Amino acid sequence: MIPEFGPGRSIPHPILFRLLDSEADDLTVPEIKVEHKAEFAYYPGCIDYYDQEMQFSHMNYGETNHGIIFDSSIKLLRAVGIEPMILDRAFMKCCGHDQLWQGKVDVFRKMRDYNSKIIKMLGVKTLITSCAEGYRTFRLDYKLDGVRVVHVTQILFERGLRIPPTGDTKRVRVAYQDPCRCGRQMPVGAVFEEPRELIKRVDNADLVELKTFRGDAQCCGVAQMMYCNDKTKGLTYSRMDEARDVDADFLLTACPKCLTHFGCLHHENKWRPGDERYKYRVMDITQFLAERLPGEYPTGGNEDPKRKELPLPGRAGGG
Amino acid sequence: MAAPPAAATPRDPLLAYYRTVRQASIDLAEKRYKTEFRFRTQQYIRGRGTTAIIDEEVCMGCTHCFDNCAFEAIDMVDRKFALPAMSYVSRKAVIIVDNCVGCEKCAIVCPVDAIDMIPKAGFEVKEGRLLQVGAPPPRPATPAPAKPAAPPATPATPATPPATPPSPSRPGGP
Amino acid sequence: MEIDRVKGKVFEEAPGFPTQYGPDRSDRQPGSPLVPHETYRDLVSIFLLLAMSFFLTAWIVPSLETPRNPAQTPFIVPDWYVLFSYGLLKLAEILPEPDVPGVLGLPAFRLTAGFWGFFLTNIPLVILLALPFIDRGRETRPAKSPLRSAFGVSFLFVWLFFASMYSVNNLILEKWPVIADDNVLKAFMFGPPFLSFAAAYVGLRRLGYKPMYWYRVVPLLAAFLITLGHSAYILSTIWGHGQWGWIAAFLGLLSATTLAPVVATVWLPEKAALRATIAGSAFFALFGVLLWLTFWFYSPGPAYATEVVIVPNMHTVLALPVFSIITGYVGLRRPYSTYEYLLNECYQCGKCHTVCPVTKVEDDALGGLNLVYNSFKKEHDGVPLWTCLACDACSAVCPLDIQYSDYILEERAKVMSQPAVDGGERE
């Protein structure tokens, strides 16, 4: 391993990555009891694992809520009349994107073969992901013949999701970060316009564009969870500064990884309360839309009693 | 631990399916995470003679170690980062060696593996055991405490998962 | 107001293109702009040269005599660069000459051959002028834009060449009486361009390491059949219409020699196609030797006529095996698609370096050096292997559409001691 720039100790969340890699070793395809068969399938990915990582390590004190993406996606999909099968971690593995880009190609291959087998076995016609990296991996790096891979914003736009008037008179400025993986990196099926259209359908939201957007959008700073150091934080800072320059009230993204990086920096930024640099909220686009859709979360809303009060950073609530 | 709000299982089978799957997903993630976490607790040498050391380049200033240290052995310092295109002020963690007892909690919870446990000054790892070398370090010149001083140090427990808890010690002294 | 402070920084109403255009590109290179600096400089040189020309013409008067009368002075062949126009003027005789009625008070006129000639001559010029506006793609290498390049080869080169040749058709017919008919020369204007278009397209498509689909072979096959028919027609005029047996044998043998490597190149995997091409070329060489021997030992006869046809003339019949060899050769020269060859396309324009976000934050980001090129040369350029975010900002602005992620994937896999995986197919 190259000592200066190699992977290993510099990859953030070593517990998480060891966990995902060790899961790949078990290649037996289990007996899957199909409770609800549908042509659509929703693949949440590692959302819950990141949730656990955050909660277990008390990262951001639960401010960055990953699990809500799962619940929001299901709520939104049901609102457009899709009742998907959920391909959750009980029998699926990690999509393998990070492992592929970190160079652990044999681990990726194992995951790919296993996941492809299961998707074929279940007879899935449309695979919906809420993660941009998952979208790219399933679309480009897996060879899923006969399966249409689609990002959740794409299918929501296609099915004509309408957000009823919220009755809120205060206009909010909403900025959208284009993830690299589902935007610029996709030679086919790039996701640029659909999230923007969905944001525009919220009646009190003003879509504002960051300084670099669509194909020129600057990366959130960390990709494939490779490093979290002052340099990557510098990039995340500059991206979040773009949102600050635009006076955004929300910064939305379509990838849970981007959400992680923005969330971490957002939390770190509150070290001195009152002196915060970023006063806007960071969340996933599915969460934003689902909050403004009336009705309950069909899956329960990922409510954690501990999350209700967010302590300030530092010991005993104050640096 | 995430739990859905206390609600009866909906009668609609589809909703019931969604709820059970979601809860199962959360529980599974938690279970697997905990299992992996246990491996991490066995990763470092542990004991009275160890101290934590932070690789500042890797540290990302998330303050998690700071929040978890029960001995006030970690402090966050402001560092100004000058990069070619921009500069900003952020934080890095530093260890206050005098206070560190070697409980390795910070090393476990660090999300980027920036903290490692190394033998303290005056201790050494020989044949897989952590041994004190030479005379114990001199007692600091403080007024004599009310209780009599603890007996001189004995070799600490080896660096395997501890079967016995480490000998009680007060911070800052043998 | 605060909004005004913000509005100057973002384009709230402007659409965002996937690639960057416009004055606010993030990869804008420093330097002097075209307008007005370089324009003024160019104008100075232009005026200087014009002044010299005017001066010379004022003092040295060219010898202009009475205009040429075709009845009196002999036929003069113009310079080679206008021969194509001359040829097209001659060719315009085959076009109809309708009468156009007068409309809106304009007098009625006739579309004469002269008009058609003028019209045909200006087609290449207009196409050349309009080309920068038609072809807005980023690709510059011929291998990456096979359609445009094949069109250029066949239309701008082959067709104009044969048009130039047609301009001296009376001279050709005098020198080579075997080409008995002027119609043969007219046919030259249509057969070879199609053929060369097909050959160039197929070859470039293969060279651009794109997959070959069956429907792309169809025009190639059509060109082949056209050539075959044309050859049969010519041979029948030479050998006589009763000699279909000889014609069929001759053309059949030639086709087998030709078609086999072409088919092999398109459908077989590389090694087998290589063998097929070598076999085809060997067969053709053998065939040529046989013909030569026939010429020596069995003259005169049908073979003698064949030899007389083939040897002194670059006839269409010869195009068949040459065509196959060219197709086989360029088709089989598909390079390895490892990142080294793909990155080798880089011509060091530096755009990737200006947009890469990592170079903005890494300490040792070197200015002015080129990201892709330096990676290819294994030089440290501020984005060593592991700090790359694989965000594809560099590929988005690269004029050659080089995917830097190819390098990243393969090299990282190598370091982790894995053979690189072949991901999904990129179209």
Secondary-structure content class of chain A: alpha/beta
**H/I helix tally of chain B:** 3
CATH level 1 name of the domain at 50-132 in chain B: Alpha Beta
Written as H for each helix and E for each strand, in order along the chain, the element string of chain B is: HEHEEHEEE
Rg for CA atoms of chain A: 19 Å
Overall body shape of chain B:
extended
**Tally of structural domains of chain A:** 1
> What is the straight-line distance between the termini of chain B?
39 Å
How many strands, which pairing sense, and closed or not: the largest β-sheet of chain B? 2 strands, antiparallel
Shape of chain A: globular
CATH architecture of the domain at 50-132 in chain B: 2-Layer Sandwich
Q: From the helix content, strand content and strand pairing of chain B, which structural class follows? A: alpha+beta
Overall number of strands of chain A: 8
Strand order of the largest sheet of chain B: 1-4
User: Number of DSSP helices of chain A?
Assistant: 11
Indicate the proportion of strand residues of chain A: 5-15%
Q: How many β strands of chain B by DSSP? A: 6
Give an overview in words.
The complex is a heterotrimer of chains A (319), B (174) and C (427). Chain A is of the alpha/beta class and 319 residues long. Chain A is 37% helix and 10% strand. Chain A has one domain. Chain B is of the alpha+beta class and 174 residues long. Chain B has helices at residues 13-41, 64-68, 105-109, and strands at residues 50-54, 74-82, 87-95, 115-119, 123-126, 129-132. A two-stranded antiparallel sheet of chain B has the order 1-4. The model of chain B is unreliable at 1-7 and 148-174 (pLDDT under 50). Chain C is 60% helix and 1% strand. Chain C has a two-stranded antiparallel sheet with strand order 1-2. In chain C, helix 8 (191-207) runs antiparallel to helix 9, helix 9 packs antiparallel against helix 13 (316-332) and helix 11 (270-297) packs across helix 12. Chains in contact: A-B, A-C, B-C.
